[in-house]
Every structure is written in structure tokens, then in C-alpha cells.
Amino acid sequence: MSAPSTLATIRTKVRRLTGRPSPQQITDAQIDDYVNTFYQYDFPEHLRVFSNNGTFEFMTIPNVDQYNMLSPTPATPSFNELIVDFDGAPSQAQDVYYNLQPPAYINGYQSFYCQSREQFFRTYPALGDIDTSLSGNGTPGPYAITLPNVPMLQNSVTVGTVDDTNSAIRVVDNPQTRSTGTWLISNSTTAPVGSIDYLSGAVSITFANNIPSGTEITFTFTPYQPNRPQAVLFYDNIITLRPVPDKVYPVKFNAFLTPAALLSSTQDPLIKQWWQYLAYGASKKIFEDSQDPEGIDQITRAFKEQENLVLHRHIVQQTNERTATIYTEMTDFPYGNFNNRF
């Protein structure tokens, strides 16, 4: 029978370390908050251990090139595999992962991954088209037009003109589904003033004021040719794919994931060995909040000892594999030229 390592055991250890045996001094709920704050926010930054490595996966949506990491719907079947749904209700997947890391695989193919907008858009430039065939007729609209060179990227369509008050008007698209969107006045909370179909190019727009007869109405947009994505840009918590996906494809990254919170008194940490480290980390936070430097000093040595024990497991795991180089696949058994003997 193994030694206990549950949240209840961690609570008991915290009470002993901090000298707070009574729930009147600190409640179990307060201890749980300290434990999970350390477990989910401090621990992953103190130690990037092997056990927190995992896989981040999502499915592409046809004709959608950008996926905001701050607003997908995560589902976590197991700690080490995070699958998110970008076509569902918003929620915070960023609370589950810490970092995305290459390599990136799209439908099983290793794909180009970068975090530089300059590098990415130098390879895959987002070149816009301009259409000025529509002019004002002295009314606010509606004005209807079918734009050429479709489909068009979402969040790339703008409309510019001047109304009868001599004010410059700039309208931007506001995607609603994978194929349709509405219009919004830029820098304003004005209600949508029309619709757009990104696949057919059909546009309808009504302005707040009259557009004088003959005044040019300028549409700018970025056309694309959908295909299987081969490159990934991760920037500003947004994943951008090129080419724009034409179908549903699985996209997978290596990821460093946040440990799941301990919510039940019978629940163990991901690795049972961590329970003492969590107890010392939570106790340190309690002493910090109570402005008790002597308490911090008393547990620091043991805290560092537990930290080294947690890190040691990671080090032992890493020693099984040498640092990868461009020649690794050529020499590691059973791959490479060592087996090709004549």
C-alpha cells in the first residue's frame, strides 16, 4: 500500500508547516486555493518537467484561417492531450496550456511553424484586391454588389467612402459563421449595417447617412485559394494557417500543459511524488500573505529539497535520450546508414 498523497494529506501537511491546525485559523477551502494557485501558476514556471508535456490538438474549419486561443471550447479527455473545438461556445483554452511548441502536424504532415509575422507573411503574403465599381446614389442604401475573386478571407474586408456630412466612413467585416458576416462601423458600437458572403462575394450594405451621388465606394478584400494547410503562425494567441483550409484537418502541436486543479479531498496530483512539494509551496504562499519572513526562512530549505526531488525525476527521464541534431535519424538504431551494409 502506497503512502497517501491526496489533497487531504496536503492540507494536513500545510497545517503542520504553517502552525495552523484549526479550521478557525485557516479553512480547508482557503488551503485548497493556496495549493492550486501554486500548482497551476507557480509550479509550471518553477519547473518545466517532462510530465507536463502533452499534445494540443484542434480540427480546422473549412474557409477559416484564424483560430483565437482565448476563445475555443476545450475538452480534456486526459491530461496529456488537450483537444479544443473552435466552432463551439467561447471559453478559455489558455487556462489549460502554457506553451505551444513545434513541430506542428497538419493531417499527419509535419508543417512549417513560426512565431514571426514578418517571416510568415513574407512567405504567404496577404495581398488585397480593390473594387471601386460601386458609387453613391444620394441615399444611405442599401447598396448591393458581388465582389470578384472569391472566396475572401474573414476579417480582411473593408468599405470606405464619404457621406453627405463630409465625414470619412470606414466599415469592417464582422464574421458570424464560417461563410457569412455582418458589417460594423469601425471604432464604433453601431449595430451591423448589412451582410457579406465570404464564399460568393455577395455584399449588401446600408450606411448611417446619405452617400452623395457619384461618390466612390471602395471595397478592399483579400482573396485566397483554399487547400490543405502547410504552415502555421502562432502570434498574439492566434493560430493562423496557410493555405486556408478547404476541409476539416487535424492540427497537432507539442504543448506544455497546466496541471488540472485538485478539487476533491481524495484527488492526487498528476504525479503522487509532488504532494510534499505542493504542501511546501502552498505554505510558503501563506507565510507571504501573512507577512511572516521567519516562517518563509524556516521552510525554504525543505522547499528547495522537494523541488530538487521533483526535478530529479525529470532529469532521469531526459538522460534516456541524447540531444537531437540533424544527424540523429542517420545514426540511431534501427534507422540510418548503419543498417545499409553491402
Topology:
Elements: H1 7-18, H2 28-46, E1 53-59, E2 66-68, E3 73-78, E4 81-85, E5 97-106, E6 109-114, H3 117-123, E7 129-135, E8 143-146, E9 158-162, E10 168-175, E11 180-185, E12 194-197, E13 202-205, E14 216-221, E15 231-235, E16 238-242, E17 250-257, H4 275-289, H5 293-318, H6 328-331
Parallel strand pairs: 1-4, 6-15
Antiparallel strand pairs: 1-17, 2-16, 3-4, 5-6, 5-17, 7-14, 8-13, 9-10, 9-14, 10-11, 11-12, 12-13, 15-16
Protein described:
The structure is a single chain. This protein has 342 residues and is α+β, with helices and mostly antiparallel strands. The chain folds into three domains: 7-44 and 264-318, no CATH class; 51-123 and 227-257, no CATH class; 129-221, Immunoglobulin-like. It is built from six helices and 17 strands. The chain has helices at 7-18, 28-46, 117-123, 275-289, 293-318, 328-331, and strands spanning 53-59, 66-68, 73-78, 81-85, 97-106, 109-114, 129-135, 143-146, 158-162, 168-175, 180-185, 194-197, 202-205, 216-221, 231-235, 238-242, 250-257. The strands form two sheets. It has a nine-stranded mixed β-sheet. It has an eight-stranded antiparallel β-sheet with strand order 7-14-9-10-11-12-13-8, with no helix packed on it. Helix 1 packs across helix 2 (28-46), helix 1 packs across helix 4 (275-289) and helix 4 packs antiparallel against helix 5 (293-318). The chain is elongated. The model is unreliable at 73-83, 85-95 and 332-342 (pLDDT under 50).
